[in-house]
Records
---
Amino acid sequence: MHHFIYGNGVLHAEDVALPRIADEVGTPFYCYSTATLTRHYRVFASALAGLDATVCFAIKANSNIAVIRTLVELGAGCDVVSGGELQIALKAGASPEKIVFSGVGKTEAEIRLALACGVGQINVESEAELETLSRIATGMGKTARIALRVNPDVEAGTHDKISTGRKEDKFGVDWTLAPALYRKARALPGIDPSGVAVHIGSQITSLAPFEAAFTRVRDLVVMLRADGFDIRHLDLGGGLGVPYDHSSNVVPPSPEEYGAMVKRTVGDIGCKFTFEPGRVIVGNAGIMVSRVISIKETPSRRFVIVDAAMNDLVRPAMYGARHEILAVQEAPTSAVFEPADVVGPVCETTDCFAKAYPLPSLKEGDLVAFLTTGAYGAVMASGYNARPLVPEAMVSGSKFAVVRRRPSFAEMMALEQMPPWIA
């Protein structure tokens, strides 16, 4: 469910007509709904009722500080994968003890920052990282509470580029080798090996891969406790999918179904749980709005050329992702929908949002909205073709505010300078 609906023939974000934002902010822009963020967080958290659980929003899905602050005020912690994301989480008001630092390649500077801030958990992904963490923690007079991220070798059934729990993936420690690494962790100074972590991918549309991975983690916890380890924390990651293509028969499990599976699989294990949802919280809470530049007719195709591009929303180009596209001005019931390729102005053939997408008649200046772009939308944007980053707006009822403005070209170039040998 989301709060982007038609009212009086115009697409609204909650009670704000999208043309109103476009007139003030310009296009393209991202827009987030506070009501949708709030609802999605509460639905997910409620599905875990009965567990001692902390929901840590995965900042990599959307790093806008206003979005994160909204979730923090609802009780969320944060899952971060870089020093920059850690600082964003703190800026947004997240409690350090409710921050989990994940990631396969933490630098020494990032580890020092995490220890200095007192993050609640560091997820360790290799023996080399474990040794580095021990050395740094000891030198700082700290004890790092860790969870080893285990790789359960489970096929998540999602896109190859966002699968993270197979043995050929770079993430985690092979689950069969984990007991030996826990024994090493126990012997190292500055390390409290009190948790187990797992994360098998993103946009997962079946409960079976989760259940297979969690069952292996459960078995590992039983083995570790038999070996004298005080395993108190279980980090089950994120990855629950959302519906992008409503014409598809694939319907991801609901948070309630996911929560029931968690309770059935590991609910009686006697641990505190951490969950790291991203997309399922913020995906449907955001849209991208773009303006039609022109309609180009060729003997074989109809192109709708919009002012958004692959640098603004890279998912279709990178993953072949499909987003629902709506005309902001509601089409009459008698309208004929005809196929069109929706493309951007970037000088790349892959700058295409959809091929043969059924759309009503559009003209220059019309607005279109790309749905379900709250996750991995603005956060993955770039300045390719010297295009400014897209601004982000947030609505709450009848109010809206710009929560990240569009940079000027002067600001974009301010970081560059000539070397001394060029006049």
---
Amino acid sequence: MVENRPWLTFFSHLTVIVGVIIIAFPIWMTFVASTHDQATMLQSPVPMWPGTHLFENYRDVLERGYDGRPGTVPLYVTLTNSLVMALGVAIGKILISIISAFAIVYFRFPLRMTFFWMIFVTLMLPVEVRIVPTYGVVANLGMLDSYPGLIIPLIASATATFLFRQFFLSVPDELAEAARVDGASPMRFFWDILLPMSRTSIAALFVIQFIYGWNQYLWPLLITTKESFYTIVMNVSRQANVVDATPSWNLLMAMAMLAMLPPVLVVMSMQRLFVRGLVETEK
């Protein structure tokens, strides 16, 4: 029996509202700053309400780059680079992980579990630990300042392989036996049965890995020397750390708002599948 306690309901709602305000306030201030000119942003106190330079600021950073400085690439170039990298990392991780998990669960070959645990152990070796030898390999293959160089070293994922393996182990063996009796090949069983059943898990992993690829900073910073291959995260950080000058905070905040937009759209568009993939076990 659930007791009706109005004070507890009020306290719960108040806690949620306060939490939302704490999270949303910095985003609101970022948006407000992106709608003013530089002179207003250097005055005290900082404005709390939007200004009149919204379209001007966003048009400037998208078309001319940060502050229109010579050699600065327009923001749409770095947004495109981040989008290509995030999609490549997310799709690459899912493809490699789901095929690896399928082979480990449904095929019997020597040292099968040894290979799985070797993959799993790589969780203790993030990019930062293996970054020097990885950079050496990428440089020797001539992949610096290129999309393959940004994407390929990041597409292996022990976490996704483990999650797909656990899901495949939960699939009843009768499905595989029925497919075998009907004459379906292993890849037909994978494509027609396992892949549709894994739809919500794939969606959840796609959202997580897309945000992971979008937020990458260290690896793109290391292997890119041309501004035409800079990512949006690199661009924002680079302009925020100018030397002997005051950053143009209005343009910088406009860049930050545009940098937040694609991950937010991905999460919102896939929210239902994302939640189902995390909380449900599809069989």
---
Amino acid sequence: MLRPWISTNLAISADGKITSVEKRASGWTSKADHQRLLDLRRGAGALMVGHGTLKADRMTLTVDGQENPPLRCIVTRDGGVESDHPVFSKAGGPIHILSTRSNTPAPVRGAVMHHGNLESFLRTLRTEQRVERLHCEGGGMLIRELARLDAIDEFHLTLAGHTLFGGRLAKSPTGLPEDWLPASREFELRSFEPHMELGECFLSYIRRRNAQ
């Protein structure tokens, strides 16, 4: 599949969950983890997030001090992104919205609209927008789809051992519990940074393509 090189970044609780309604508004990981999030954005030609995560976390997908800011890509089922969302008022890269279900996504002022599946959108980013590196910040369902396509090259994870979320249907790094992926995706641990004082550990993995 012709696509950009793709990295992802998520934080998980001690029980492997990625979110909690009461925690999202205030943030639940350390300032060091937030700085790591910003650092991981640098060098990417595009940043991508699912609409649910964008809305819940009030994300603007920006990188300060970068001469050519990355594209800001939002994936949604129906194309509906709130026009008053701060992503439209914060200066940054061009906004591209992918609608994966609607046949005729309504235009959103200040954004380029796309219709189709994630695979075709990734191809468009690579061939038409010349994006070589794309960084995805969730949510779990979007990362699951990237994993299904075997389109994750690097996986960054913050293990926040100070928190338990619980919940049988709480999302994991690959979304809600459902069928297995088409095949296992093997990754090699490249970086392991424990921070005992924070109760967190920063991990980075690289996809092992030669394991197929």
